[in-house]
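Table 4 source record.
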Amino acid sequence: MAESDESGNVDLTIDFPGERAEPTHLVVMVNGLIGSAQNWRFAAKQLLKKYPQDLVVHCSKRNHSTQTFDGVDVMGERLAEEVRSVIKRHPSLQKISFVAHSLGGLIARYAVARLYEQESRQELPQNSDDKRSIEEPKGRIAGLEPVFFITSATPHLGSRGHKQVPLFSGSHTLERLATRMSWCLGKTGKHLFLADGDDGKPPLLLRMTICNDIISSAFVNSSALRCFKRRIAYANTSFDHLVGWSTSSIRRRNELPKLQRGPVNEKYPHIVNVETPDTSSNEEEDRPGINSDGVDMEEEMIRELTKMRWERVDVSFRGTLQRFLAHNTIQASVKTKMINSAGADVIQHMVDNFEP
């Protein structure tokens, strides 16, 4: 069943004959640059097919087409407002997850910070075996329990760093030119290329990770992201001409793994590496000073983002005709079997590892 609000946003659920339990888990799917809600329809249907009674899947329509040039902050505010309206329509909801493609991952990160609510600490019973005197604070997103935060080919570190946009073939000249011309993509372009520090503040993407007095206290220590049970980054290892492997998997280039030949599991032929969280990645490190140099800003973002645990799933479409469209193929925004359908196994991997 599809239910729409006055803005045309669509919530997908499954109809059952007779009585059925009300769905308790909201999955918000967010499109990328010049995208639309239609891009996630295939994945939404697969999630509902496996978990028909548990989920409401909402394919966001608030930021589409040229609206995606308006800036990460503007789009994040729109998405946050949209999520609140969806929750009002479904009072049975208890949990929330986000699934986002490309730029949508940055929009979702901004939105969850706006929706973040930190619960007050509560004292443990005196006879508790727990050695802590107080319970760790638990965060909620728009009043719901946060479960999954999943990104697919998202430029978490922006597009300014060396080789972060493979289309430029590692040319420093082209990378510098792209930064100067980032205004061509509107406010969003400036955000992606970390070129928006005109007001004396650090670029927005950097402010979304560091602990400065910025925008909202929710960004401090990336608390909004930390409160999700699982954070998963799907990344193309090659043939993604728009978003590099390093920025989408939140790794330094010298940390990119050597890939084995063939898939990890024959069921998912295009998934070539799965990395579970490394507890050592949560250790605090001394941070370098922030300046206008893109390399230092990139390092700062990596250090902050990797203080929380991420699962990384590396994807390769090498050997398929659709590899040249890898950036969209990973999302399996299937319209015909000839376009982007190779990514269906990546979506199936996400569905199989989802917990309602």
